[in-house]
Design a protein that fits this description.
- The structure holds 2 protein chains of 2 kinds.
- By secondary structure, chain A is α+β, with helices and mostly antiparallel strands.
- Chain A has helices at 25-35, 45-50, 60-67, 69-75, and strands at residues 15-23, 81-88, 101-112, 117-126, 129-130, 132-140.
- Chain A has a single domain, classed as Roll (Thiol Ester Dehydrase, Chain A), CATH 3.10.129.10.
- Helices cover 23% and strands 35% of the residues of chain A.
- In chain A, strands 1, 2, 3, 4, 5 and 6 form a 6-stranded antiparallel sheet that branches.
- In chain A, strand 4 and strand 5 form a beta hairpin.
- Chain A starts with 14 loop residues before the first strand and ends with a strand.
- Chain B has helices spanning 22-31, 42-47, 61-72, and strands spanning 18-19, 84-93, 102-115, 118-128, 134-144.
- Chain B has a domain at 10-20 and 58-144: Hotdog Thioesterase (Thiol Ester Dehydrase, Chain A, Roll), CATH 3.10.129.10.
- The chains are: A alpha+beta, B alpha+beta.
- Chain A binds chain B through residues 1-2, 21, 27, 30-31, 33-37, 60-62, 64-66, 68-69, 72-73, 76-79, 81-88, 134, and chain B through 27-28, 30-34, 36, 38-39, 47-50, 54, 56-58, 61-62, 65-66, 85-93, 95-96, 139.
């Protein structure tokens, strides 16, 4: 475990570099295959609408996978993540067009904890809506 | 119909081991378009102190959720999966999942609640490697939305 960020160099309120992640239908098909989650709400518009959704939606776990990249890209070693949790508050709606959707993620240090660990609070939005709540990671720094 | 509270605390038998492969990790990392070399380059992973390539933090969900199928599909519990949405997800890692791991999951029902007709089910999946060492615990909250009236 080799974090490239030192515990001594961060303070509560330190912001991590924000990132924007594009999502298209092709992204979701690929994620379905890689994750084994073939729920049709993530690729079949007709089915999604039949169960009351506005359109096809991204896998919550896809959004969770993207959001933690703000932490892992910052710290360098993904093995530095000690805890990671989210609440799925709103779906990421992915229209069938050339643009799809985007997920915007920012993070900041919310607390400095024991053993060189910090708590990072993440904010993830899509189309102006918060898509993750209580999105928190505990990360061990150098 | 509210789920039977007596299922709280029930632990299901450990799953047969899932063998984590390098190429499966690569496939997953590419699907989330995460180019971190720790997922695909053994030397880069070793430079960070890992014995082999590691998996992205959420990779293990595919394994724990498959294991949770024992709970979800337990006919005695009677969860209506067609109405289920994923509410919360949390992981606590002792170490990252890595290629070569043979992982077994033990699922436990931590809580059952009923709120405004919705059934809320908390499942804990303890993931251990072949040596019996703890790797990660996954907590999954599932919400079965109330059936519409009439």
């Amino acid at each position: 475990m080799t974090a490239k960020i030192a515990y001594a160099d961060v303070e509560v309120g330190t912001e991590l570099p924000a990132q924007t992640f594009p999502v298209t239908r092709a992204t979701l098909v690929r994620y379905a295959g890689a994750s084994g989650d073939f729920n049709p709400i993530h690729w079949n518009e007709k089915f999604a609408k039949e169960v009351g959704l506005p359109d096809v939606i991204a896998h919550g776990m896809f959004t969770m996978a993207e959001a933690i990249r703000v932490v892992t890209d910052w710290v360098g070693d993904p093995g530095a993540v000690v805890e990671y949790g989210v609440r799925f508050t709103k779906p990421v709606v992915v229209p069938n067009d050339d643009e799809g959707a985007t997920i915007e993620v920012s993070g900041k240090i919310a607390a400095k904890l024991d053993d060189n660990t910090v708590r990072v609070d993440l904010t993830a939005t899509s189309a102006g809506q918060k898509v993750l709540g209580m999105s928190r990671a505990v990360v061990r720094l150098a | 119909m509210a789920l039977d509270q007596s299922f709280v605390g029930r632990t299901y038998p450990p799953t047969d081991p899932y063998e984590v492969g390098r190429e499966k990790i690569r496939e997953f990392a590419e699907a989330v378009r995460d180019a971190n070399p720790a997922y695909t380059d053994v030397e880069a992973a070793k430079a960070l102190g890992h014995p082999d390539v590691i998996a992205p933090p959420t990779f293990v969900f595919a394994i724990t959720f498959t294991a949770a199928g024992q709970v979800i599909e337990d006919p005695q519990l009677g969860l209506d999966y067609s109405r289920v949405v994923h509410g919360d997800q949390k992981f606590a890692y002792t170490r990252p999942v890595r290629a070569g791991d043979r992982l077994s999951v033990t699922s436990t029902i931590e809580a059952i609640k009923s709120l405004a007709g919705n059934d809320i089910l908390d499942i804990r999946g303890e993931v251990h490697d072949e040596a019996g060492e703890h790797v990660v615990t996954a907590w999954t909250k599932l919400v079965a939305r109330a059936a519409e009236e009439g």
